[in-house]
Amino acid sequence: MFPFPHPHQLHVSLVIFVPVVCAIHMAPAAAVAGVGSEEGAPALLRLLQRVQSEALRALGPRDFDPKFYVDLPLAADASAVGAALSSLTRPALSREVMEAFISRYFAPAGSDLVAADPLDFEDEPRGFLPKVENAEARAWALEVHALWKDLARRVAPDVVARPDRHTILPLPGRVVVPGSRFREVYYWDSYWVVRGLLVSKMYDTAKDITLNLVYFAEKYGFVLNGARSYYTNRSQPPLLSSMVLDIYMATGDMVFLKRAFPSLLKEYSFWMSDIHNVAIMDNHGRVHNLSRYQAMWNKPRPESATIDEEFASKLTSTAAKEKFYHQVASTAESGWDFSSRWMRDSTDMTTLATSHIIPVDLNTFILKMEQDIAFFAELIGENTVSESFSEASNARYNAIESVLWNSDMEQWLDYWLPTDGNGQVLTKDISLMSYNVIVSNGANTLILLT
């Protein structure tokens, strides 16, 4: 039995956002094995980060957008571009020389996507906002509706033909881009896009967007933060099951549901893996599994490398810088990049501690995912799977109530994991160590055992 109504009755209501938590404890940065390897970074990204660094030197920091440079498609082979970059005059690299280099060796940013008229677009679809009767409001809504034509794209053929020249990732279906400097698909942005497309009765486009994310889960084992090669080290708030549910409730398309279902199981496994899962023992001896954000990266983010490096410059050791880079990437995985919610000191970015926080909203998203999967499994006749996920949702609900509910404030709060020594260790059960165990004396003090 579900602790809440069945998911088809509440597919929006479980999204909970909480205010900034005033916390006093946190844990040291988690060590994530095998992340941030320079050897593992694609050669194209390493080249583009060199371009990014040289451009900053030539153009200066004013209005400098580091993302622009790692989004540029190459107009020649990487070896030729690299050789040309190495030959640029130093140390006085001028703006004119840099701009000429960019113009010669790169295609325009954004040219790796091409316009693609959505085939299911209608100027005023039947059943569009039936309760909006005010003429002015309705005219405005139709203007917003018309923007779908401007934001719809497909991946350019050259991305598939020559992937070594592009950081954008090939996708099978149409996309809707956020716009401005964000020229690619993003995970949790897509949830709001799908909701809007359903209002516009553009069901096929909504399915395309969702199946692009399904493709990511199939290929990478999780849904990427965004459709760029530099986003393969992290995800974003897990809302894929919500998109699938919303589309199914609007269309009743069982073929679509069955197509997406295996990828939902893959995504769930990702969020339940050792990287994200934290086992918490309460003062009654009960172990609760909850989730956190934790990127698989401890280097400057390629799309913001010059910014990350500037913040890290105040840190004196390589280890401290790697911990900071890891926390920055983990914060980007949260979708809240950036907020004082994740900082020990709201005025100092280097105090980010996102991977040491058990967020209310993330665990609510995953609770809803568990309920959605249980519902879908029941629909397609996978009764054992349905029962398993129903039990998992009950367990997470109890974990949220036990660990994240603050009875004094009468609200759910993010839970900060403290550093070693900031509380009494109640157990060191070696059988639990593989779960990255923390122990509690009643939702007040935790110790992280590493």
Task: Tag the structure with descriptive keywords.
450 residues; Glycosyltransferase; 4-stranded mixed beta sheet; 3-stranded antiparallel beta sheet; globular
Describe the structure.
Pfam families: Trehalase (PF01204). GO terms for molecular function: alpha,alpha-trehalase activity. It contains 14 helices and eleven strands. The protein is an alpha+beta fold. Strands 5-4-10-11 form a four-stranded mixed sheet. Strand 4 (277-281) and strand 5 (287-291) form a beta hairpin. Residues 1-40 and 420-450 have low confidence and may be disordered.
Secondary-structure map with pairings?
Blueprint: H1 43-59, H2 66-70, H3 78-86, H4 95-105, E1 113-115, H5 135-151, E2 152-155, H6 157-161, E3 175-176, H7 187-199, H8 203-220, H9 240-251, H10 254-271, E4 277-281, E5 287-291, H11 305-312, H12 318-334, E6 357-358, H13 360-379, H14 383-404, E7 405-406, E8 411-412, E9 415-416, E10 438-440, E11 446-448
Parallel strand pairs: 4-10
Antiparallel strand pairs: 1-2, 2-3, 4-5, 6-9, 7-8, 10-11
Please sum up the structure shown:
With 450 residues, this protein is α+β, with helices and mostly antiparallel strands. The chain folds into three domains: 7-36 and 275-448, Alpha/alpha barrel (Glycosyltransferase); 43-109; 113-264, no CATH class. It is built from 14 helices and eleven strands.
* Oligomerization: single chain
Number of domains: 3
Order of helices and strands: HHHHEHEHEHHHHEEHHEHHEEEEE
Low-confidence stretches: 1-40, 420-450
Query: Number of helical segments?
Result: 14
**How confident is the prediction overall: mean pLDDT?**
86
* Radius of gyration computed on alpha carbons: 24 Å
- Give the DSSP E fraction (strand runs of 2 or more residues): 5-15%
Helix content: 40-55%
